[in-house]
Amino acid sequence: MTDTVRILMCPPHHYDVDYVINPWMEGNIHRSSRERAEQQWNQLYEVLTGLAAVELVSPEKGWPDMVFAANAGLVLGDRVVLSRFLHPERQGEEPYFQAWFEANGFTVHTLPKSLPFEGAGDALFDRAGGWLWAGYGFRSELDSHPYLADWLDVEVLSLRLVDQRFYHLDTCFCPLTDGYLMYYPPAFDAYSNRLIELRVPAEKRIAIDEIDAINFACNTVNVDRTVVVNQASDALKEALNERGFTVEETPLTEFLKAGGAAKCLTLKVTEPRRDTPKVSTIQSRVIHLEGHLLDSGLVNRALDTIITGGGSFQVLNFDLGKQRQDTSMAEVKVSAPDQTVMDDIMGQLIDLGAVSLPREVAPAALAPVVQAGVAPDDFYVTTIYPTEVLVGNSWIKVEGQRMDGAIAITRAASNGSDQGPVARCKLLRDLQVGEDVVVGSKGIHTLRTAPSLKKKTDDFSFMGAGVSSERRVELVVEQIAWDLRRIRDRGGKVVVTAGPVVIHTGGSEHLKSLIQGGYVHALLGGNAIAVHDIEQAMMGTSLGMDMKRGVSVQGGHRHHLKAINTIRRYGSIANAVEKGVLTSGVMYECVKNNIPFSLAGSIRDDGPLPDTQMNLIEAQADYARLIEGADLILMLSSMLHSIGVGNMTPAGVKMVCVDINPAVVTKLSDRGSVESTGVVTDVGLFLSLLVQQLSKLTGQYTYI
Ligand code: ARG
Question: What region holds the LOR/SDH bifunctional enzyme conserved domain (predicted)?
Fold first, then answer.
């Protein structure tokens, strides 16, 4: 018997399942037997008195969970941090536990009322290293951890719980004598698992299976080499035996109904202090969000981002706009277990338009490129939104905004004099040695335009179930026609990306009309659209189908190769037009009307046509050049080219994506651009409606 170990318990005289505050309690209200609970508790008490000195705190009527003494507080030496229960159902236990600690000579530290922390249920000392493992995610707040580090003078390692069934750290994590650790890895997020693996060597880790986890095998009382537990599988017993532990099972099924077992029923009140430096790596920042926070779901997204990223938050201020057009403002304190997690979360919050509050604003951190085409590790990944970076004392606008790039800072010089720093979005492959790249998340601000209130309803479905879609497609076509006309009339720019489906569905006549009408200023596609367009122009078929009669022509599948061959003979599409070989079609109209086009090659291309750019880096550059200055991009049934274009287009450019496959449309609107409209319909039909509508609008415009 080790009488230096003292354990606190609370008899179960008032124990019952009276309410539901964890998933184990569901369906168990008043379903536990007081008699059996007394009997099981007494048996545990007997076992423990053989191992340690057990002291009692008297149970109080009306506080049935007080039996779970582990949640009284967290003891180290002669200090205790008293619990602040999350649920009101347990908050009434606090003064009784406080009285016991005070009566027993402990110095009691109390947390702010609004900061939940559930004692030794969520905080466990490592038995070798002496540091404190502290859980958060369900009951205890991450922000309570720095207080623990401070008051108890220990190093605190924060672990995030992600499975509701394991809502307290001691339900899935148990440090054992000699630095062993028994735990259930799936109860933690990836970051926490990494942290555990960094601190506890592989031979000391005992990862248990789900079956043991749900029998509360981790909810163990460990004194020296004895492990007292509700139930353990043979495999687990063996694993423990091999490491020199004796397992004592004592049934605690009545307490499992409330979500607790052996460890929950006890609190070790002799916890010798060791010399570990007082540290907590927890970081916090205050962010400011402004805009149509509720209408656009921006607050929800921001708060979800913080939680799923492994942080926690406190809303410090929330000013709700009074009228529909008013914007709202929120100030949120973000906490994260360390700098890496914080940077990750902040990166995402910045993408949502959050800014660090002025007093927290620090210039952007820069790191040099040391290998051409490779960015420093934690480089900031750009979005489609206009971005500014704080370099020195001034915010500078990032040029060439696009998503998935890095921000390179260079110095502009003119006539030999320094014009100050310039920030530019660059693809990784374009980074050059010596350039500075923005890293981390400080000093970066993205501007998000207020999303239109009708955002999510903008995806019109022509054939989708449940929508009176025909009319809705007409409505959206009306809007697009109106936009096209205004853009054309003011000398703006419309870019079309198109897949071969445009030709197969009979859309080429209409696309031709659009080009002739001056509505198209650049055409982007692949080898196929040009091949099928030329095949149709020369032979009247598209992939061997007679486009007038809608039937396949004998031997027609060879037609497209013949078309390719002919163009190859003339060296280019333009040459074939000039020589009078190609006399109609979409490509012909482009050449005739001086509409620049770019055909990006791919692995499946036949031919290719001499115009097809098979060097994809060149092709991306051509696309980027043609998109520059676009007001609207009409994406017609080409997932590959539309998404490619979406990736290089900054926010603010309207995108209309037409595809029969809703997944493509959704994928494009998911890039977060508020200006994108999705139309799920047959592209041939769409183009026909569009041309009709345009001819109505312009009067003089002739519909072919
Ligand atoms: N019903 C209690 C609760 O949900 C059970 C507490 C279990 N205690 C523990 N240390 N895990 O709060």
Answer: 285-385
In short, whether 259's Cβ falls inside 6 Å of ligand 1 is: yes
Q: Are residues 180 and 320 in the same domain?
A: no
User: Based on the domain organization, do 264 and 288 belong to the same domain?
Assistant: no
What is the distance in A from the centroid of ligand 1 to the CA of 83? 12
Together in a domain, 531 and 570: yes
CA of 322 to the centre of ligand 1 (A): 42
Domain count, the chain: 3
Query: String of b and e for 175-193 (b: at least 16 CB within 10 Å)?
Result: bbbebbbbbbbebbbebbb
pLDDT given at position 451:
42
Beta-carbon contacts of residue 148 (< 8 Å; ≥ 6 apart): 74, 81, 117, 123, 132, 134, 154, 156, 280
User: Does residue 606 share a domain with residue 511?
Assistant: yes
Residue 671's pLDDT is 61
Q: How far is CA 639 from the centre of its chain?
A: 23
Give how far the C-alpha of residue 135 lies from the chain's centroid of Cα atoms, to the nearest Å. Answer: 22
Please report whether residue 521 resides in a domain.
yes
Whether 172 is catalytic is: no
Q: Is the CB of 264 under 6 A from ligand 1?
A: yes
pLDDT at res. 1: 44
Domain extent at residue 206: 6-268
Ranges of H-type helices in 73-142: 88-91, 94-103
The CATH number of residue 366's host domain is 3.30.70.2690
Residues 418, 538 within the same domain = no
For the CA of 171, the closest atom of ligand 1 is: 11
Our answer to whether residue 14 is catalytic in this structure is no
**Residue 455: inside a domain:** no
The ligand 1 atom at the shortest distance from the C-alpha of residue 122 is 10
User: Based on the domain organization, do 25 and 138 belong to the same domain?
Assistant: yes
630 phi, psi to nearest 5 deg: -70, 145
Q: Is the CB of 170 under 6 A from ligand 1?
A: yes
Q: Judge whether 703 lies within some domain.
A: no
- Count of alpha carbons within 13 Å of 159, Cβ hemisphere only? 34
Shared-domain flag, residues 299 and 387: yes
Instruction: Please indicate, yes or no, whether residues 414 and 540 belong to a single structural domain of this protein.
Output: no
CB-based contact 215:231 (threshold 8 Å): yes
Task: Among 32, 63, 168, name the best residue to mutate to test ligand 1's pocket (greatest count of ligand atoms within 8 A of Cβ).
Answer: 168
Q: Which residue has the tokens 């903008």?
A: 458
pLDDT of residue 398: 94
Say which amino acid occupies 44: L
Residue 247 domain-assigned? yes
- Tell me the CATH number at 583: 3.40.50.10690
Low-confidence ranges of the chain (pLDDT < 70): 1-3, 276-278, 357-361, 448-471, 556, 669-675, 699-704
